[in-house]
Amino acid sequence: MASLWEYANPLKFMRTTDWLLPVVAVAAVVVTTIGLVWGFFFTPDDFRQGATVKIVFIHVPAAMMAINAWVMMLVASLVWLIRRHHVSALAAKAAAPIGLVMTLIGLITGAVWGQPMWGTWWAWDPRLTSFLILFLFYLGYIALWSAIDDPDTGADLTAVLCLVGSVFAVLSRYAALFWNQGLHQGASLSVAPGTRMDWAYKAPLYICMVGFGLIFVTLVLAGTRTEIRARRMKALVARERMA
Amino acid sequence: MGLTVTNLACARGGFPLLERVSFSLNAGQALVLRGPNGCGKTTLLRTVAGLQPALAGQVDCPPDSIAYAAHADGLKTTLSVAENLSFWAAVYGTQGIDAALEQMNLRALAPRAAQNLSAGQKRRLGLARLMVTGRPIWVLDEPTVSLDTASVALFGEVVRAHLSGGGMALMATHIDLGLPEAGILDLTTFRAVLPPPGSGHFDEAFL
Amino acid sequence: MIALLVRDLRLAFRAGGGFGLGLAFFLIIAVLVPLGVGPEPEILARIAPGILWVGALLACLLSLDRIFALDYEDGSLDLLATAPVPMEGVVSVKALAHWLTTGLPLVLISPVLGLLLYLPPQAYGWLVLSLALGTPALSVIGTFGAALTVGLKRGGLLLSLLVLPLYIPTLVFGAEVVARGAQGLDVATPLALLAGITAGAVALLPFASALVIRINLR
Prior knowledge:
- The complex is a heterotrimer of chains A (243), B (207) and C (218).
- Chain A is mainly α and 243 residues long.
- Chain A has helices at residues 10-41, 56-83, 86-118, 126-147, 151-179, 199-242.
- Chain A has one domain (22-180, 198-242).
- Chain A has six helices and no strands.
- Chain B is of the alpha/beta class and 207 residues long.
- In chain B, the strands form two sheets. A five-stranded parallel beta sheet of chain B has the order 5-6-7-3-8, with helices on both faces. A three-stranded antiparallel beta sheet of chain B has the order 2-1-4, with helices on one face.
- In chain B, β1 and β2 form a beta hairpin.
- Chain C is mainly α and 218 residues long.
- The B-C interface holds B 49-53, 64, 66-79, 83, 86-88, 90-93, 129 and C 2-4, 7, 10-11, 14-17, 71, 73-85, 217-218.
């Protein structure tokens, strides 16, 4: 019976990604290049922010993927806890470092952008604070994975941590909002009336977002393949020992 | 009333270790598990005790009938012998620790803190814990470790008394307890056979 | 259950139980901060709510790894898992014992430390109330972290890394209650949110902790 769950079979997953991974990788490179080149060289300077505004083409997609990566880990963790598919747990494991780096990119580009705009590298603004907290959650998740030897136990424990962490991450987000109403602008792509962003920026930004999404998928697929192989290797060594 | 294990398969660290283990124990019977180190005695006992899930098969016994004793005795060193025992009696909702103290020859040690006991005395206290649980099925992992000959004999007596009272015992041990009536199960015959590589088993990549 | 609580409390009070360490740590923080920041009353009064809350949080953290580690090492946790008590109950009792030996003393001693830090008089009630409402959440969340790391060698540092981010909402709302109380502002909103987090954590987290303990014992 053909169903989505078939791809949870490690062998089937490896066979599918054998051809899927290069396709996604090429698409990611092409789309991101188009988006960034368009964004950097073919958009007008902002009348107030000048050329600095163009960092938005990295900042916003990275920040978006930082959150999406966590959501993906949450879903993968749930799939592991409920259906016990190893590939799902390994995909969550592979996504964590990528999410961590995306968070870091978001924070660093934000600092670089904030310096000329707000005159400071860092502000304890709710949005910035939330991202810093998200960064800590990623660190904890990755540290827990690396501390546990048994792969299934590690998968179980990190999955539970991911679930509980998600709840507390959302709580922290609201706590940060409550704690300090900040100077960060609202979501850049809000559909509220009086949207500040022009289509001249929006079009390349959307392309960059798709590009970053594809980069994320590429890296997660590659990472999951590595994890599957590592797991397989461990299994073969153990088999050898038992024989 | 009894313990029935059917086609049980269990794993350690994600690898199948034992499969198709079947046996049954009725009131008054004892079974000794034998096999070389690492063959899965502890894993099987932990699976029967419900500490880890079985890969396949079933463990059938009346609810709340198993008392488990592991390698470690679970003693609190700063509590006295009597306090340690009373705690477990309270957890299992049973009355009185006197019989257990008497039978395991711990009466004189009752007020002493557990940290001042010798290894063998601690072991005796760990086994006395079984008696206060009031459970019919004892699942014992190497119960005679660090016991001297006299204490082994004492323990053999206690197990026999437990069996004659309608109890059951499942043990992993290398030492002859002086229980000729106990059955013996050699675990080497139940060693799990992994599916050969390339058989298309669902999670084969990980086995 | 009650037997378990009595045993844990008895162990905490006996020699080597570590009772009072958290309290001493809390006191040291309240002494070190003025030494580092300077003795100006205005500055100390301004940061007192935050210092007291961060201090309480760290003092709580100090004793977390003892919650399960000792029971795991001597095998009691295996035996408790096979005993006729639900694991959810065991972790709840463990959290309660931790709160009684760590959180409650912190709540009681906090006004004295507030005095050291020139906390404004109108804030004392709110300080005690917010700690009384918030420290149970710290114990319950910490129990979850301790359950996650119970099987690990040198899990202590990892435990802090896992637990501290989870403490953020409690810290924010707890300190906010005291800060607003000190300024004579309305504290109803942060107080309600603090109580909500504690209630939610106490009600739900024991299930996660019990699940995690069972996984770790496998």
